Structures are given as structure tokens and as C-alpha cells.
Amino acid sequence: QVQVVETGGGSVQTGGSLRLSCTLPEYTYRRNCLGWFRQAPGKEREGVAAIYTGGGSTSYADSVKGRFTISQDNAKNAVYLQMNSLKPEDTAKYYCAWGSSGAYCGAFRFAYWGQGTQVTVSS
Length: 123
What we know:
By secondary structure, the protein is mainly β. The chain has one helix spanning 26-29, and strands at residues 5-7, 10-13, 18-23, 33-39, 46-52, 58-60, 68-73, 78-83, 92-98, 112-113, 117-122. Strands 2, 4, 5, 6, 9, 10 and 11 form a seven-stranded mixed sheet that branches. The longest helix has 4 residues, at 26-29. It starts with a strand and ends with a strand.
């Protein structure tokens, strides 16, 4: 079982910012597709952002482009999701995820994920 450490999340008002972080074992972090998806109650899972740690290429859902930024820290085996200009519709549980199931990383078809962290944006 992969030990993933997810931190960040919380409650903010509209327009606020939060940063999520996800730390993985090196063997999982290296040359892998990592990212986040989110799921709100009663809604389908939505891929949010992804990064291929082998080269740094990134992908974003249209709904977060220009507001969210995914980044990596190879020294810490960590990926981060900086979320700015948050909106109430960003409210969901966010899951750090990895593995692309053989698909293009930007397809957000993650094979594994952590426990998730709640993000709540109030108006």
C-alpha cells in the first residue's frame, strides 16, 4: 500500500486561496502522472490538474485554468496544487491521485488515490 501524505484544504471565502500538497514515496513519485481530482456530493468525479513528473508537463480542467497551478518538488517527492480565486463551485473533496492507467496524463484517468481533503468555499 502506497503511503501518501495529503495536506492543505480547509474553508475559505470566495476569492480566497488554498494550497494542497501531496507527498509520495520516491518510487511512486518519479516518472509518473500525478495530480488531483475532486468530487462533490451528488456529482461526478472531475479531474482537476495533472503533472508528469518525468518532464513537468501539466494539464488542467477548463474549469480551473488560470486559477489553479500544479507544481512539483523533486527534492521532496511532492506535488502541489495552488488554488487561487476560489469559487463556491470549487467546493469538493480533493483527492491526490497517481498513475495514468496507460492513458495520456491529461486524461485524468488516475489509477490510485489517497484519502482526500475537503475544500469548502463560501460565498
